[in-house]
Design goal:
about 350 residues, alpha/beta, Aspartate Aminotransferase, domain 1, Aspartate Aminotransferase, domain 2, 2 domains, seven-stranded mixed sheet, four-stranded antiparallel sheet, about 15% strand
Length: about 350
């Protein structure tokens, strides 16, 4: 604490990221990273971009926006690129979500959302998930300025179908709906095809999960042009160059190598189903996940105790000591060997 702090700093409750261990030999299943390396084309593209390091990167990320647009079947003008989807979300909160009525999002969801509300002074209400830990869109028929949904939701992994989001958009044409699709590529339906028909929809995605580029920090948003313009105005009032030339080159190569993406995604989905089966056989309740992680709790062991015991044995998972989910563990889908090691350790504990 310092006497030079601005008043807002005293009120902040910062986001706590997952542990990044320094020692080798850890089975790291706590931060939802992809267990497989990025496409070889990514490495080649980054190497080729090194000669441009002395120059500022393209402030419009033109080449990358064109690649994203081609992949998602939208116009480049409908794409906004940022330094990871967290930055895209931050700009969204500031550019589009700060209004008098409250912003709505689930009570169990990505824990950065209330942090952004505190940082930007945004009023919000948390809408409880139902008893099955699902989002019920009928619960969002209440006064609000906007609705923010993580789909698939994190940390539950449960996804809404596109038709449900379409119904929400049609029911609430005067409210912005932001869909955070960080995990959409692992089996859920993207809302991007709805953008053409709905000017109240913004979809946010990331290269961190399904494209194996968490270390490059690239995220993007897709929406109709007025929404994208709002994000650009905030970005250009903060940092004209949020994405460096290496990240732009690598991300463009990643989204263009569809074969590599499909192969690694299929391996993760197969491992997820095996992991869920093995956990159930050990007495866990496992929520139906369409993400690259599972959310599970044991019928007789506390989540905190299991997380601590796993950590002592070199296996990291994520535990949230929050109401309703304090006995759940969020477990990233790792390689087949990493998942097998987790199950082996759990058998010894349970």
């Amino acid at each position: 604490m310092s006497r030079f702090w601005s008043p807002v700093v005293h009120t902040l409750s910062p986001y706590v990221p997952g542990e990044q261990p320094k020692q080798d030999g850890i089975v790291k299943l706590n931060t939802n990273e992809n267990p497989y390396p990025p496409s070889p084309r990514v490495l080649a593209a980054i190497a080729a971009a090194v000669e441009r390091l002395r120059l500022y990167p393209d402030p419009r990320a033109t080449r990358l926006r064109e690649a994203i647009a081609a992949h998602c079947d939208v116009a480049p003008e409908q794409v906004f690129v940022g330094n990871g989807s967290d930055e895209v979300l931050a700009h969204t909160f500031q550019a589009l979500l700060k209004h008098e009525p409250p912003l709505l999002f689930p009570d169990v969801t990505y824990s950065f959302y209330p942090v952004y509300c505190g940082l930007y002074g945004i009023t919000h209400d948390e809408v409880p998930l139902d008893a099955a830990m699902r989002i019920d869109i009928s619960d969002y028929r209440r006064p609000s300025s906007a609705i923010l949904l993580c789909n698939p939701n994190a940390p539950t992994g449960i996804a809404l179908q596109r038709d449900a989001i379409a119904s929400l958009l049609a029911e609430q044409p005067d409210r912005l709906v932001v869909v955070d699709e960080a995990y959409v590529d692992f089996g859920a339906e993207s809302a991007v095809p709805l953008v053409a028909r709905h000017d109240n929809l913004l979809v946010i995605q990331t290269f961190s999960k399904s494209r194996s580029l968490a270390g490059l920090r690239v995220g993007f948003a897709i929406g109709q042009r007025p929404l994208i313009e709002a994000l650009e105005r905030v970005k250009d009032s903060f940092n004209s160059y949020p994405v460096d030339c290496l990240a732009m080159a690598g991300a463009a190569a990643a989204i263009e190598d569809d074969g590599w993406f499909r192969d690694t995604r299929a391996r993760i989905i197969a491992s997820r189903e095996t992991l869920a089966r093995d956990l159930r056989q050990l007495g866990f309740e496992v929520l139906p996940s369409l993400a690259n992680f599972v959310f599970a709790r044991h019928r007789s062991r506390s989540g905190a105790d299991l997380a601590a015991a796993l950590r002592q044995r070199g296996v990291l998972v994520r535990h949230f000591g929050k109401p309703r989910i304090e006995n759940f563990l969020r477990i990233t889908v790792g390689t087949e060997a990493e998942c097998a090691r987790l199950i082996e350790v759990l058998r010894g504990l349970i």
